[in-house]
Write a structure and sequence with these properties.
This protein has 15 helices and 20 strands. With 465 residues, it is an alpha/beta fold. The protein has three domains: 2-160, 3-Layer(aba) Sandwich (Rossmann fold); 181-403, tm_1862 like domain (pyruvate-formate lyase- activating enzyme, Alpha-Beta Horseshoe), CATH 3.80.30; 406-463, Nucleic acid-binding proteins (OB fold (Dihydrolipoamide Acetyltransferase, E2P), Beta Barrel). A hairpin with a 5-residue loop joins strand 16 (409-417) and strand 17. Helix 1 (10-31) packs across helix 7, helix 10 (243-251) runs parallel beside helix 11 and helix 11 runs parallel beside helix 13 (308-321). Bound molecules: S-adenosylmethionine (SAM), iron/sulfur cluster and FE3-S4 cluster. The site of iron/sulfur cluster (SF4) has 10 residues, from helix 8.
């Protein structure tokens, strides 16, 4: 039986939480350990952050997190729908769990996130995979307690994917994986409706958190020892209370930490934003600005609302103030109807801008979006070859541009062990990967590294003691 009840309302969450606390306490008493839960997030940082909130909520109810699905009583897969291959991954994982679920019928298997929010995908998941107990969309994350309590009491299956108003300032707890780098959403949803993109359909309209609540969270994170705060939004430039103001406000918080953010939409990237980045010492000198295409005809068909010349003006302004200003970008190759000549316009423009990092994707049709209805005569294979051409042809420009760091000393936040023995890897203020020799005790700390060599998308250096 599939339950499609309304699980919203504070009282339902309160009752649900009380029930779950009793359930986890009884489990702990009987087995000597609390029940374990696993939340696995696919997709972007926003989704990872949502996953951390779900884990936080579960921990509050008495569950203990694990990364090993084989020992968990509750499995939640927090999905992404941005491209077909992201959805394929989820179907693969859920398919693989069929046997496991048959052997462990008491384990609860839940699917949430963007793919779950998309009605057709959710219904298909539910009808194809009998092993799924619970499907809830991005608007129902705050209803987790009520849904789980219902499942534990009455079993059955739950589908909860209605779009509904949510309060961006609603309180939450979050269990972050990293103890030094934190994702912090400042807004949710998107109003832009780029014609290829599913995000506005699965995340709803833009909702901004108040600057007070963002500031309070940053202060707490800094007090807890966090060194890097990554502000998140699909387009932070349309933050309702003014994004440059927010950056200046957060820059004023005392402590040894740095501020990153993503993403910025080029149509709203202002001179004020560039001036603020350059003027605030805690804000990283890097802008992720998704170009998508260098062809004005394709940009128009994508509903991006800027031309390549508008984009260039932002780059020119930033580099007039700081010649080595770092940009990274997203590129879609093979938008419906794109010709080879139009693709070449992208290729040439990418070389002109000199990006430090390019995230490039072959266009993937998303049902329900406008672009999915357009004629698309170029084959997937051909698009794959264009993508390779873009990256290969840009390689020389990128590695030449990376050389600007050689001889400089950069402040690096150490992310973890490098590939070779006794090496470390981290990111500098420009978001460039820096590899160097050092002790693992430096992980999660800032250190100064003198850059000695550069590669295509990373640099090597020596620790300055
Ligand atoms: N809001 C961000 C922005 O506009 O910069 C982008 C967020 S989206 C999750 C990340 C990237 O996925 C996009 O910039 C775009 O390059 C890519 N993307 C989105 N829809 C796609 C599709 N249908 N096919 C291929 N790539 C897509
Ligand atoms: Fe998608 Fe465009 Fe919104 Fe980014 S700005 S999430 S690409 S619709
Ligand atoms: Fe992110 Fe994927 Fe959703 S990129 S917003 S998790 S569709």
């Amino acid at each position: 039986m599939v339950v499609q009840r309304d699980f919203s309302g504070e009282d339902k969450q309160r009752d649900g939480l009380e029930y779950l606390k009793k359930y986890t306490a009884a489990h702990a008493e009987r087995f000597g350990v609390p029940p374990l839960c696993m939340v696995h997030s696919f997709g972007c940082q926003q989704n990872v952050s949502d996953g951390e909130r779900l884990l936080g909520a579960l921990a509050e109810a008495g569950f203990e997190p694990t990364d090993d699905y084989k020992i968990a009583q509750l499995l939640i897969f927090n999905t992404c729908a941005v491209r077909e291959n992201a959805e394929d991954k989820v179907r693969g994982v859920v398919g693989d769990l069929k046997k496991f679920k048959e052997q462990h019928p008491d384990v609860i298997l839940g699917i949430c996130g963007c793919m779950a929010q998309e009605k057709k995908s959710a219904e298909r998941l539910l009808s194809t995979y009998g092993q799924i107990d619970l499907i809830f969309g991005t608007f129902a994350n705050g209803e987790l307690y009520a849904m789980l309590a219902e499942l534990l009491k009455n079993r059955g299956r739950i589908l909860n994917i209605e779009e509904k108003p949510t309060d961006p300032d609603a309180p939450f707890t979050q269990l972050r994986k990293s103890s030094y780098s934190a994702f912090l959403p400042i807004m949710y949803g998107c109003n832009n409706f780029c014609t290829y993109c599913i995000v506005p359909y699965v995340r709803g309209r833009e909702r901004s958190r108040s600057p007070e609540s963002v500031e309070a969270e940053v202060r707490q994170l800094v007090a807890d020892g966090y060194k890097e705060i990554m502000l998140l939004g699909q387009n932070v430039n349309s933050y309702s209370y003014g994004f440059p103001e927010l950056l200046r406000r957060l820059n004023g918080i005392e402590g040894d930490f740095r501020i990153r953010f993503m993403s910025s939409h080029p149509k709203d990237a202002s001179r004020e934003l560039i001036d603020t980045i350059i003027g605030c010492e805690k804000v990283c000198k890097h802008l992720h600005l998704a170009l998508q295409s260098g062809s004005d005809r394709i940009l128009k068909a994508m509903n991006r609302r800027y031309t390549h010349e508008d984009f260039w003006k932002i780059v020119e302004y930033a580099r007039s103030k700081r010649p080595d200003f770092s940009f990274s970008t997203d590129i879609i190759v093979g938008f419906p109807g794109e010709t080879y000549e139009e693709f070449c316009e992208t290729k040439e423009f990418v070389k002109k801008v000199k990006f430090d990092n390019i995230y490039s994707f072959v266009y993937s049709p998303r049902s329900g979006t406008k672009a999915a209805e357009l004629d698309d005569p170029v084959s997937e294979k051909q698009k794959g070859l264009w993508l390779r051409e873009l990256l290969l042809e840009n390689r020389e420009v990128a590695s030449e541009w990376m050389k600007r760091f050689v001889g400089r000393t950069c402040r690096v936040l150490v992310d973890g062990a490098g590939k070779e023995q006794e090496t470390l890897t981290g990111h500098n203020d420009e978001n460039i990967i820096v590899n160097f020799s050092g002790d693992e005790s430096l992980i999660g700390k800032f250190c100064d590294v003198r850059i000695t060599d550069s590669m295509n998308w990373a640099v090597k250096g020596e620790l300055v003691l």
